[in-house]
Design brief:
Number of helices: 5
Order of helices and strands: HHHHEEH
Helix content: 40-55%
Number of domains: 2
């Protein structure tokens, strides 16, 4: 019998994976994540701080808001962190 070899690439994001889980599976994942075994890895890699920051900023599961410079109105700026003007406009104001 001939053999057919085929390579498939499947991309599964964490969000898609979690959406496919049942309530029981999500509970199992939660128990695993908070187990000492995984908490050591999470704390060692600083993952917990990143997750807490995202929760505090309410950025998990939503598209990031795009802010633009209040002077030129076309340069994107980091409005989530209080930046309202782009560096080029600020430099022009200092001259």
């Amino acid at each position: 019998m001939p053999t057919i070899q085929q390579q498939n690439n499947i991309v599964i994001t964490p969000e898609k994976f979690l959406e496919a889980c049942s309530q029981n599976e999500l509970r199992e994942i939660e128990i695993l994540i908070f187990s000492p075994r995984f908490q050591q890895t999470i704390q060692a890699e600083g993952i917990l701080q990143t997750i807490n920051k995202q929760i505090a900023q309410n950025t998990i599961g939503r598209k990031p808001q795009i802010y633009y410079c209040s002077i030129c109105e076309h340069t994107p700026v980091d409005g989530d962190n209080g930046v309202i003007n782009c560096q080029q406009c600020l430099d022009k104001m200092e001259v």
